histidine kinase
Amino acid sequence: MTKFRAKLTFILILLIGCSMLIAGIFMAKVLENSHIKSLQDNMERELQVITATVDWNRKGTDAELISYYTEQAKHLKEATHERVTYVRADGKVLGDSDQRPEQMDNHLNRPEIASAAANGVGYVTRYSDTLKENMLYAAIPVKNEAKETTGFLRISMSLEQVGKSIRSLWYFLISGLIILFLIAGIVSYRIAKGITYPIEKMTKVAQQITNMNYQSRVPAYSNDEVGQLGQAINRMSESLQQQMARIQENERRLQGVMENMMSGIMMIDREERIMLLNPAAEYILGFSSQELLGKKYNEAKQQYEFTKLIQECIETQDPIRDEMVFYYPAERILDIHLSPIAHEDEEWSGVLIVIHDITAVRRLERMRSEFVANVSHELKTPIAAVKGFAETLLAGALNDKETAVSFLQIIFDESERLNRLIGDILELSKIESKRIPMNFSPIYLPEFLERSLSVLRKEAEKKHIELSMLVDDDIYIEADEDRLRQIIINLLSNGIAYTHDGGKVKVRVEPLDMNADGDYERLRLIVSDTGMGIPKKDLPRIFERFYRVDKARSRSSGGTGLGLSIVKHLVELHKGTIRVDSEVGVGTRFTIELPVIH
Ligand code: ADP
């Protein structure tokens, strides 16, 4: 039982008990009075009956009268059980049922007699000296035919009897009160419970809401103020639940954004502690959030310049944008924005740092400008040659027929080279920009390779190079046919170009990851030659644009330095890989691995 309920029960019991007690006492008093009143009425009636039944105006001597009336009084007492006294008008006692009248003094001044003489009836409660107890006396005057008072008739009864009946009345009343009190207790408890139960329930619900259990509801009670309070709590809880759901949803969304965005986000609070770090920031900075979160920005492990930048932002309270090179965990170029977070009411509440990894962007920019420089350079050489020889011809060499022909041949070769160069550059930029969609179709490799080889056969024969292929009968691949041919022809023509007379160039196909049913997921294409090979130091750069091991050698072979770069791009478009192994003077081997199905 709660304190409130106990208090309420106590107050109710007290209220009910007190009012019942007061009502009980009042009732008992009323009952006692009415009891005495009815007793008096009875006595008066008895007195009237007695006056009517006996002749109270007898003549005779005092002794005769005393003997007669005493006899009558005793007689009457037998019937009424009450003391009967007859007093003559002068106060002399003529008869008494309990006492000898001769021994009794004059009764004219007895209050009941005096009252009877004055009012027609007199009642008095008094201690009787004669009987030694409290007695109730009632007296009326006795009259003759002439309506003169000839005497007084008095009866008295022991108050012991009256007390007894009043006491039993009290007992009855008290036991009734006790029962009523018990009932009042139970009723009070029930009433208190009826009032406090909904309040207790609401308190419980409010506590649960405090503990973030927003599903908790107050049951519907009544439509009174308590019921309305319950409804208000329910509405409050509902609105809290909705708001919490909205907040959680927002938090989830924000979390999703933070976790999935490419930019690194870091937040520093007013105490200069790192209080937020998204996965991108962890990755870029190379430290996990466990290592950084909660730490002071200048105590956490990180690049010194970065710390300085944050410090500057905190000190100046101005947004800062800077580009910075980080060397840990890998070399990166980062674009860093720092902005102080300010709320209306406060001066500032922290710093928001957004980090973009612009390494790739910068590298691309560098590559583009290098590419432009390379292209201009590559174009300049053949153009200079064409221009130079044309000038010489114009200056007079035309007259010497033999020289003129050889110069024109050079001009033709150089313009041819220029054409090839421009063609390759266009091709490369087309592939790089991925403008042309891939056109995958199943290719039967033995036939496809045979046709590719036949294109180069003439060239190989010129240098007495043996061109061969090794491929199983049932090998298919899904690929863009034109591009696959470009790959093979590029590699084979390189092989022919960089192999001495009498050498060998081979192409071989091997299925990879073959299972028991003879199905394979990948294919390996190997183009190998017995040529001059590539020095080790050049191997890593071989696929770069315009990279040539030996400019003179390449030029004599008519190469542009773009072939392998194109090949690599085409292989990647097929989701494949390419690698090169080579030994100077022994030969070179290009190995391509391609998935069979796209
Ligand atoms: P190029 O048009 O000059 O041949 P590539 O990109 O095809 O340009 O090749 C780049 C360089 O790689 C060539 O200049 C050459 O030095 C070297 N190279 C390519 N293939 C071979 C090979 N099979 N054997 C030896 N060197 C090769």
